[in-house]
Design a protein that fits this description.
The chain is α+β, with helices and mostly antiparallel strands and 590 residues long. 26% of the residues lie in helices and 34% in strands. It has a six-stranded mixed beta sheet, sandwiched between helices. A six-stranded antiparallel β-barrel has the order 13-14-20-17-16-21. Helix 5 (152-160) packs parallel to helix 6 (181-193). The longest helix has 17 residues, at 351-367. It is elongated, with a radius of gyration of 32 Å. The two termini are 33 Å apart. The structure holds guanosine-5'-diphosphate (GDP). The site of guanosine-5'-diphosphate has 16 residues, from helix 4.
């Protein structure tokens, strides 16, 4: 890595959010240098991506340039989870936390809304319900928390961050539509998370509803409902009429009872960020699901690289709360920055302790060695993997339409082998740009272009930086070449491109170079650096390279159609009149 020029700035004011390019300009370094430094902190950002103050500040501090905030607003922070010993000395029962998943349009949002509306606790109906990413209802004196960010993305994103916050997963299947691709995906996610599953067969009010068909389709996915002798509860519901919602809540109650969910309300709180945003008036607001302990107003908090103090807490109706026990979702004000969904939150005994932890985490993040990857190509991948140099194949995927991006990305991610994981670090539609090449160069990623071109400036950047750009127009071929590279079977395929053809019309001898064929160019152009196939009566006699090309007494680089010339071939001395010389070069086709 380059070091900061001594004439550069000594301090810099940075805004809450800045593009990588903007940051590099302020710091007086190249964008690629900025991208590389970000990578060493695990931030994959392209030139035009926006990063938050904290991240920018780390890069700046690394260069010996003191960062300061341009204004007093908050910023988005990338937090590093600090793992605390969380021994389950749990005692008191806690409410279950439920996530609703399912195919798009099968009614996840409608169900979440219907459950919330029919279970507003009496006396609290005055407050307007706000969307804060989670809510709690009370039914027969029992509380249930619902994560109100439907979709697998939230579920998976949180799991990817090690936050397993769901106790019960409800998979919604529309009775008229049946089991669809995302239903299967949802089932697989839930299985992978080892969370108990309940099926809600929704839209039973529709004439086309066919609950039996849904159950059969589920059986095909090895989800066997009770009626069919299995152990999965399936509840017919209608989010529209409210029918079956009580039964669904009973099923949730039953499944969670079996789990005997417990927590210790007396401990200092720990939790998970469900959703967070920057409020222009109130600063960073984070919806936190308390997992254990009790969160109180005034508590000192740490979330990754962010510290803070609970200045105020609100519930889903915007009501002030003084404390929040296990499984309670609360919106808190007072963090210094906006954490990311899935980040852990821990309470410490004092603000000083919290700050110390953050300082330490920051130092660790900064010193985390960012051993730069050498540049990787699909051809060298197997070798690198065998040598233990590569554990991950990083890919950048550019496609013509979003649909193909999703399909390819999904297929690529599962290609990984025991030794090497496949990770798509960036996906976008449109041509391969300079910014993509920079990201690839900095991260050691390979760019896969599907049905898109490469901008000329990007192509030359790639050439300079040795970044590999592979272009495909058939998904299968793209996947196959990545797969083969992973398996070490990758054999590059070349195609011969004929540049010119010449006919041998006379033979000469030179004491210095041996035999010279006097030729006439019948097609195209002969190039000095080409390879040459000598054909006699249609058969190939030799395939070698051209070692000399002359016009009269001069060595030339090329000879065009219609001209005569002298040709010398590498290691060949037996020309005959009438031989055809095919001048060609190899072009990579995969
Ligand atoms: P999501 O994409 O899974 O969140 O699905 P939505 O909750 O947005 O619902 C998709 C569509 O289905 C909307 O037009 C809803 O009004 C409709 N819908 C949801 N639940 C029901 C139901 O129980 N009965 C009927 N008839 N329509 C429903």
């Amino acid at each position: 890595m380059t070091t900061r020029p001594s004439s550069g700035p000594r301090s810099v004011a940075l805004p809450d959010a800045i593009t990588v390019k903007g940051l590099s300009e302020r710091l007086g370094i190249s964008p690629i240098e900025a991208i590389k430094r970000l990578m060493t902190h695990g931030v994959m950002a392209a030139m035009n991506d926006t990063i938050d103050y904290d991240t920018a500040a780390i890069v700046s501090a690394e260069l010996g340039i003191a960062p300061s905030r341009e204004d007093s607003g908050g910023a988005v922070a990338t937090a590093v989870r600090e793992d605390e010993d969380e021994s389950e000395d749990a005692g008191a029962p806690r409410p279950p936390v439920v996530t609703i998943l399912g195919h798009v349009d099968h009614g996840k949002t409608s169900l979440l809304d219907a459950i919330r509306e029919t279970n507003v606790v009496a006396g609290e109906a005055g407050g307007i319900t706000q969307h804060i990413g989670a809510y709690q209802i009370e039914r027969d004196g029992k509380a249930v928390t619902f994560i109100d960010t439907p979709g697998h993305a939230a579920f998976t994103a949180m799991r990817a961050r090690g936050a397993q916050i769901t106790d019960v997963a409800v998979v919604v299947v529309a009775a008229d539509d049946g089991v669809m691709p995302q239903t299967i995906e949802a089932i697989n996610h839930v299985r992978a998370a080892e969370v108990p599953m309940i099926i809600a067969i929704n839209k039973t009010d529709l004439p086309a509803a066919n609950a039996d068909r849904v159950k059969q389709q589920l059986t095909e996915q090895s989800v066997v409902v009770e009626e069919y002798g299995g152990d999965v509860l399936a509840v017919p519901v209608s989010a529209t009429t409210g029918e079956g919602l009580g039964a669904l809540l009973e099923a949730i109650d039953l499944v969670s009872e079996i789990q005997e969910l417990k927590a210790s309300p007396e401990r200092l709180a720990s939790g998970t960020v469900v959703e967070a945003e920057l409020d222009p008036r109130r600063g960073p607001l984070a919806t936190v699901l308390v997992r254990n302990g009790t969160l109180r107003q005034g508590d000192a908090l740490v979330s990754g690289l962010i510290s803070g103090k609970v200045k105020a807490m609100f519930d889903e109706r915007g009501e002030r709360l003084r404390e929040a026990g296990p499984s309670r979702p609360v919106r808190i004000m007072g963090l210094e920055d906006v954490p990311a969904a899935g980040d852990a939150i821990e309470v410490f005994e004092s603000e000083r302790a919290a700050r110390r932890i953050v300082e330490q985490a920051r130092r660790e993040a900064e010193s985390a060695s960012g051993a730069r990857r050498g540049h990787l190509t699909l051809d060298t991948l197997f070798h690198e993997v065998s040598a233990g140099n590569v554990k991950e194949l990083l890919l950048i995927l550019k496609t013509d339409v979003r649909g193909s991006a999703e399909a390819i990305r999904g297929s690529l991610q599962v290609l990984g082998t025991g030794e090497v994981k496949v990770k798509v670090i960036h996906t976008a539609t449109g041509p391969v740009s300079e910014s993509d090449v920079m990201l690839a160069g900095a991260s050691g990623a390979i760019i896969l272009a599907f049905n898109v071109r490469t901008e000329p400036s990007a192509a030359s950047q790639a050439e300079i930086n040795g970044v590999e750009i592979r272009t495909y127009d058939v998904i299968y071929q793209l996947l196959e070449s990545v797969d083969q590279a992973l398996e070490g079977l990758y054999e590059p395929v070349y195609e011969r491109v004929v540049d010119g053809v010449a006919e041998v019309r006379a033979l000469f001898r030179s004491s210095r170079v041996g035999q010279i064929a006097g030729c006439y160019v019948t097609e195209g152009t002969l190039l000095r650096g080409d390879r040459v196939r000598l054909l006699r009566n249609g058969d190939e006699v030799i395939d070698t390279s051209c070692s000399g090309l002359r016009r009269f007494q001069d060595d030339v680089r090329e000879v065009q159609q219609g001209f005569e010339c002298g040709v010398v071939l590498e290691r060949y001395d037996a020309f005959e009149e009438g031989d055809l010389l095919e001048f060609y070069h190899q072009q990579r086709v995969n």
